[in-house]
Amino acid sequence: MKLNILCIGDIVGRPGRRIVADKLKPLVSELSIDCVIVDAENAAGGSGLTPQIYNKLLRYGVNLVTLGDHTYRKRDIIKTLETAENIARPANFSEPAAGRGFGVYKTSKGPTIAAVALIGRLFMKPANCPYNTIDRILPQLQQNADIIIVDFHAEATSEKVAMGYHLDGRVSLCFGTHTHVVTADEKIMPKGTAYITDIGMTGAHDSVLGRGVESVLKSFRTQMPFPFEIATGNVKMNAILVTVDSNTKKAERIERIKINTESEDSARYDSDDGKPEYFNNNF
User: Fold this and answer.
1) Helix axes 13-31, 51-60, angle to 10 degrees
2) What distances in angstroms separate CA 228 from CA 47, 121, 276, 279, one per listed residue?
3) Torsions phi, psi of 35, nearest 5?
4) Which of 6, 13, 27, 111 has its CA 20 to 30 A from that of 237?
């Protein structure tokens, strides 16, 4: 059985959420999508995720949610992490950390998809070994899911490429997130795993990774913290579409997708974002 899986790059703030709200359901219908996975760690005000926004993403048509280094930026998401089965924080966080390292979704066609979140260690905060972690949990996942997908949330391209080779033939798809810049290296690896180093960002692209240019420049130039307000211009959705054979577990196709807004009005922003947070060159 062929399954079409859409993976959407880091959603940044209201503009990112709005384009998902406006465009996702028509895209699912047009492309016959069986499962939608999003990285939502920047969905609330550019950093973190709230239960309200999580529920909105599900209403928009999202099936699985992955998170990264900003998992706990909004502490009220912790209860959701502990109770919902379709949301994953990085599996190689400390063992007592709230939440699970994978989410599961049973498609309408029958096969179950598991999305694993991993976080890198190069230029990132301390975490357990992602390679050892995925080796440890794969046997359990293989018993409970027909298709396994890994979101590797990492800074270094070398670390992501290495993970692709480590997982080739063991999962159906390994995609990268975190850098917010889409890469052009999508491919089917020799043993049948689809791979791309980073699927990019869903948000305002007239920006620095979704944040206002002037405030980011001030922070870089002065090394002082400034509120990184969410940019609003040139909103795009970056994603990949992957077709997987549920019988062989191998990917048959991977392609990049970019969706634009018709205009930059996108004025129907909801009000779940708080005030801009302060970051010191930490996206």
Assistant:
1) 30
2) 10, 24, 6, 7
3) -155, 135
4) 111
Q: Please state the domain extents for the chain.
A: 2-262
Distance, CA of 265 to CA of 232 (rounded, Å): 9
Catalytic residues: 70
DSSP state of 231: P
The 8-class DSSP code of residue 229 comes to: P
Residues 6 or more apart whose Cβ sits within 8 Å of residue 101: 88, 89, 90, 91, 92, 93, 116, 117, 118, 133, 137
CA 72 to chain centre: 15
State how far the Cα of 192 lies from the Cα of 133, in Å rounded to an integer: 21
Q: Could you count the other beta carbons within 10 Å of the beta carbon of residue 213?
A: 12
d(CA 158, CA 24): 31
Tell if the pTM clears 0.90, that is, is over it. yes
Strand partners, 4: 243
Average pLDDT score over the chain: 92
Task: Indicate the burial class of 90 (C-beta count within 10 angstroms; 0-12, 13-18, 19 or more).
Answer: buried
Both tokens of 69, joined, read: 């280094």
Average of per-residue pLDDT across 91-113: 97
38-73 burial, b for 16+ CB within 10 Å, e for fewer? bbbbbbbbbbbbbbebbebbbebbbbbbbbbbbbbb
Instruction: Tell me the per-residue pLDDT of 243-268, one tens digit each, with 9 for 90 and over.
Output: 999 999 999 999 999 999 864 433 33
CATH topology of domain 2-262: Purple Acid Phosphatase; chain A, domain 2 (3.60.21)
Which residues, 6 or more positions from 36, have their beta carbon under 8 angstroms from its beta carbon?
5, 6, 8, 24, 28, 61, 62, 63, 64
User: For residues 27 and 6, what is the distance between their CA atoms, to the nearest angstrom?
Assistant: 9
